[in-house]
Amino acid sequence: GINLEALNVHLVGIFTSPTTKDSSAIIALPDNSQKLFHVGEQLDNFGVIDRIDSDKVIVDVEGDKQTLQLP
Q: What is the strand order of the sheet 56-61 is part of?
């Protein structure tokens, strides 16, 4: 299966909002680019952003919920 940490996908920053659907996260991808993602968006080909908390992001990777923590 896909392991986000092994692929060097990591959380850079989080912008929380009172309504979680408006929260967003900056995630660094394997090519070292950084992109802004919202809940429900596709994380490149790796999975879908399931939840954004104040300190972590949950990614649904083919049904496997993986957590990206802030450093």
A: 42-43, 47-52, 56-61, 64-69
